[in-house]
Amino acid sequence: MGNEAPAVDPVVESTAADIAAMRIRGAAAIADAAAAALAIQAERSDAVTPGAFRTQLRVAARTLYETRPTAVSLPNALRYVLRGTDGDSVDELRSSTIDRAETFREDLEDAQTTLGKIGSNRLRDGDVVMTHCHSTDALACIEAALDDGKRIEAIVTETRPRKQGHITARELREWGVPVTLIVDNAARRYLDDADHVLVGADSIAADGGVINKIGTSGLAVNARERGVPVMVAAQTIKLHPGTMTGHTVAIEMRDETEVLTSSERSEITDLEDGDDGFTVENPAFDVTPPRHVDAIVTEHGQFPPESVVTLMRELFGETTTEPWET
Ligand SMILES: O=C(COP(=O)(O)O)[C@H](O)[C@H](O)COP(=O)(O)O
Hints:
Blueprint: H1 10-20, H2 27-44, H3 50-65, H4 73-83, H5 90-120, E1 128-131, H6 136-147, E2 153-157, H7 165-174, E3 179-182, H8 187-191, E4 196-199, E5 203-204, E6 210-213, H9 216-226, E7 230-233, H10 262-269, E8 285-288, E9 295-298, E10 301-303, H11 308-316
Parallel strand pairs: 1-2, 1-4, 2-3, 4-7, 7-9
Antiparallel strand pairs: 5-6, 6-8, 9-10
Helix pairs in contact: 1-2, 1-3, 2-3, 2-4, 2-5, 3-4, 4-5, 5-6
The structure holds ribulose-1,5-diphosphate.
């Protein structure tokens, strides 16, 4: 009995379920929600000893960590909060955790605002920007350019299979930006009308590789061929410290039902018991090699992808065991 993992707060469970089901999605939003959930866990903890409090918090962090594998902003957020949990009593641990989570969330918002201003310098009045998926970091650059009085137009890829491009289109329209929505396969054709490709990132590897929504790498290759610069807007919580020591970024594979319905499946296979020779693959992300990226825009400035490792070392130092693994 005594060895059972302690129950975590229902808010942690529901946040984890929302992240897994993509009701909360996008790397920054996931990090923000995870930090908020840890703060609630701390606030409502029924632990009576410091040890029990820490164990409960670690279990909560692990529950959140296990939702989606690709956006490093999630473990970066969890690590940041857990490493700030400090004190000798439950009350001290509680308040330090809540403070740390609040600081994280404020910094996240500030970083995005700063990044937006830096990134907006790359956008000129009258520019046409092609976007892929929905990235709050990328949109922050457009918002800052609009605030500076620049006129910006957007070509927005639909982003199959989840169509996050619709979220981008809606947001841009709310800001009055003229939007042309295209299917992903039309991107190359429309690149001739674009001055920039602007995307976000779920993780940035030490070699400058950019892990973002599936289709980003193909878009970047096409953009390079067309001579359109590719700009990645990514706060430093998207930097993946594990890649400094040789780890690769796990690419999430999602359910085939996002790609085709069961009736579409049966139209293809026409077999009630399934068909071993028919598989659907649904990777959610891909890796864009650094040579296809012109700049990574962070709240610390713009970097050629190959030099991002220096920033990574500065910010994360040497990586150690994750606090929720101990
Ligand atoms: O790939 C996605 C979202 O994928 P999903 O919809 O599968 O979560 C976004 O481009 C990044 O997460 C960056 O977003 P942000 O800049 O908002 O962090």
